[in-house]
Amino acid sequence: MGELTSAVLGGESRMWIGGRWVEAVSGEFVDVTDPATGEVVGRVPKGGGKDAARAIDAAFSAFPGWSRRTGAERASVLKRWAEAIRNHRQEISRILTLEQGKPLAESLEEADGAADFVEWYAEEAKRICGETLPGSRGNQRILVIRQPVGVAALITPWNYPATMVTRKMAAALAAGCTVVLKPASQTPLTAVALLKLLEEAGLPPGAANLVTGEAGAIGREMMADPRVRKVSFTGSTETGKKLIRASAERVKRLSLELGGNAPLIVFPDSDLERAVEATIGNKFENAGQMCNGINVLYVHESIVDRFSERLVSRVQSLRVGRGTEPGVRMGPLIDERNLRKVEALVEDAVRKGARVLTGGCRLTGEPHRSGTFYAPTVIGDVTLEMRLVHEEIFGPVAPVVPFREEGEVLARVNATPYGLAAYVFTRDVGRVFRMAENLEFGMVAVNGTSLSVPQAPFGGIKESGQGREGGRHGMEEFLHLKYISLNL
Ligand code: ADP
Fold first, then answer.
1. CA pair distance 468, 457, nearest whole angstrom
2. From the alpha carbon of 183, which atom of ligand 1 is closest?
3. pTM of the model as a whole
4. Which domain holds residue 95?
5. What amino acid positions are annotated as catalytic residues?
6. Is 341 in the pocket of ligand 1 (CB under 6 A)?
7. Measured in angstroms, how far is the CA atom of residue 208 from the centroid of ligand 1?
8. How far lies 392's CA from each of 72, 165, 257, 259, in Å?
9. How many domains does the chain have?
């Protein structure tokens, strides 16, 4: 075990506030458990409103110093952070798998992805530029400058405990904001590890702060304090809506990355093998717990049997188990609550006439007995009356729905309140453009299913959220424009 792992696993971690590692005001701790075994793998302070207030104080005090550093100075801290994450990728991925459940190979990929976001924003910190505009009078000069919004509160989910932290935090710090991070209660240990590395990278005290514990109380404090000028949240649409309501009081800026209902649409002219592989890569990554994960597979009626057959045989080869075991391709679901939701959606479909082609149940025998495992599942004969077509499954269940016409499938997938990601498989160039332009989603992937890269604006429309993360657009979320009119 390395130094980082032994500091985080098995013992009591601390929150990072004002450059010091501290306990919660309550003095209490909460357990963090391994979803594959139910065992406690670490403990974090049970912070609440008062702890959030202390963290906001620290971030507010650190703001003038951090925001006035040059972009290059901020970049050098971030670069060291990216390097430290890469140097500790094995340790981070072990912590991540133990608290989250995904296979080590996926955790390693996530640790590398987390470092990539930090590196990208380190580079971008140097490129926060303004504009000059022509004046309306001969003696007028107009300048537009970009300034950091101030203290930013970052609330992250449990499905990507490393990349969701760095995608938000690196953008905010690069912009010159100071931050308070509240990681998901299920997966705070990865955040503790990442911030230990950020401290070593030389971030000044208070520029980033970590608060763990009671989400509701911490969230309320973040929304109530007028010094928090921006909230960036990734999580459920339900909690996102609560934050929108709470933000009204202080007119806070929000970026929200919420739920989705991503369709995969496979046309008969597509490369079937590639479509099946890409489906496996997306639908069963992280046991299907991905906000841009495929929810429903729409496959043209002329190829649906062939497609389903291949998919089933690939799905049956996926090994399910503890993420720390070599060769395991899929881990447990995050907790009992999510497992029950997946079970309920499948039961509803079966009751309404769907056919389970493989899987379709919780795994209860050894070695899955003490974890929250669900079998990788494919379901056929799915109809629009079934809940899993309309609700976000967030589990390893692939419902297959046949379609006949391009227009019909387009209308059907656009008729959801969500709009995060859509996937299309076709080799017809005209159709590529028709679909990409008419799909009402923030992101469309054609002939592939992976989307999250540092340079691209990740995010949704409709009830899937607002604002973007990643790329220069992601940094704009932490900057405001100031217009300066000069009269000579
Ligand atoms: P999920 O249902 O997928 O766990 P949530 O939206 O409940 O998603 O949680 C996502 C993140 O939001 C987590 O970090 C969680 O602790 C936090 N959270 C949950 N409820 C609130 C709230 N009322 N205010 C602020 N943050 C919250």
1. 5
2. 14
3. 0.97
4. 3-259+465-487
5. 257
6. no
7. 20
8. 42, 23, 14, 7
9. 2
